Amino acid sequence: MRKIVPYLKWSFILLFIAAAAAVFSLFISYTRTDSEKLYLTPGMYDSMGWDIYIIDNGQRVYLTPRELIDIDLGRTFYLSRILTQEMRDDNYTLINMSNARPSAVFLDEELIYSNCCSISPKLDETVFPEEFSSYDMRGENTYCTLPENYAGKLITIATAHVDYQGMPIIVLSSMTIGWEVHASGTNSIIIPAAGFAVTALILFGIWLYGVFCGIRNPATLFVIAAAMIQSFSYLRQYEYYSPASTAMDTPLTAFIPVIAVLLPQVYFLFKSEKRRNKVIYSIIIGTAGAAAIIFQTVELSNGSVLCGHIRNILMYFSSAAIIALAVSEAKIGNKVFRLFLGGIAAVLFSIAVLYVGSLAGNGYYSSNIKTVLIVSLLYSNCDLISFFGMVLFMLSAFISFYSIISHTVRIQTELAVQEERLEQLDRDLAVQKQFYESKLSKEEEIRSLRHDMNGHLSTLLALLDENKSDEAASYLSGIIKLHSEHKSDTMCENPYMNAVLTEYSARCHDNHISFTCHIGVGDHTLPSTELCLILNNALENAVEACMKLPEKERRIKVQAAVKQNRFLLRISNRFDGSLSETEVLPVTKKVGKEHGYGLPNIQRAAQRKGGSMKCRTENEYFVLDVQFPLE
Predict the structure, then answer these.
(1) Residue 302 Cα to chain centre, angstroms
(2) Which of the chain's ends, N or C, has fewer CB atoms near its CB within 10 Å?
């Protein structure tokens, strides 16, 4: 079986990586947009140009953003500012106020929009109903189209805290910008969700194929489940973009961050090779995981922040246990956990580079990293837990694919080796058949000679009976001369080597090629398979080279000996000079699909026995030297 050249294997791998990167870049491009909304949301320390006030006894009382926190729930407050020409030049045509809160929009004190019925159309007289209903946790945003000539006009937004939800998020946008931002936002969720789902399906298909082939790998099932859990997590986020989708709107989705961490951890437990580690860390991770699920249930039922903290601590503890397991397993040479630790190191290095690089820029990523760490540690927030789950899943999925591919490559390699062995066995059997056929031919010749001798003896006896001694002597001399010309076909004591040499000696005789042998291997035991392969390939090449020459120039010489427990073989033949020298082997310019296979086959056979092959040209001769140690 012809094997793939090593550098071609690497080129295939690089080609696959390039194709995967191209596809990834294509899909990621759909999660980005150059369109920008204009955020006018007031902050605690920056009112973003808004005048904030309430109406108290018919008078406006202006407040700072921080003072706004202390007003009573349900009390109406106002935000007012001038819309500039720059806003109009940037084609902002919509005002959007998110959060589930009652609101009314006035332009130069004229009501142009409200999401509440039965309110006064006069500014400063807005009274919202005591109860304001909206979609739970999602809320209907306030969208208001601004008139064409809004530049320079005063916009006033009346709103109230139904429950304290922070400052109202106020954004200037347009239909085009809105659609682009919405599409990129939903794509940034749907594409990863689809990616995780496809990964799960591919792994499941490979797992089923393995089961069909008799390969059972239960650990892969946990990676498949983790992929689906990650997909469900993104689908849950998508529902905030599309309130009409409610398939994931269930309390069970609160357990996704915990389960997303535990499933890859179970996968790595299965990959542990040391029984003691497997038992100890199974107990640790199993106990921590069960306790985390219990505390998550309690938090879900009563909203306890303390339970959320304990759940997070348990997840951090189980993640630390997996890293400790990885270190212990890597020390004993477990490749899975060496890859795992390498992946963890790569993730930490990437975060550090992102953090340091952000410090040199606008500090966005460094600030975001700090925020995730602080919020996750000080509050019962799952952001950091979700990140751990994502990292563990990516590593487990990579290792699972790597294991499957490695296993497949190993099987293919073993099949190739077995196929090559079968081919060698076929060649060995062919040589043995040739040897035994030669033996049968010799026995046939002996029987024929015996029959002839009986005839000769009868003739001699008749001549002697007739007292014709001179005629008998002459007849006997002729018989002796005839049989003295008969040469023995035994060229060496090794039967396999003798069979090959005998065969090619006959071919050379038929094709008028001078064939000379000097064999001195004695009764040493030689590897029949490799020896026959080397002789057959070398002599076949030599015969083909000689056939291109005139009959008087055709010569082949075979020399073999055993010295210092090493088998030495030299085969030299005349050739017409049509050789192309390469860095590895000179390859004859033959035409056909078998071109160039003889010398590589000889080299591999010699290397299998711990030897080597060299070839050169010398005085119009092609010289092949092969040597290998004898066992």
Answers:
(1) 45
(2) C
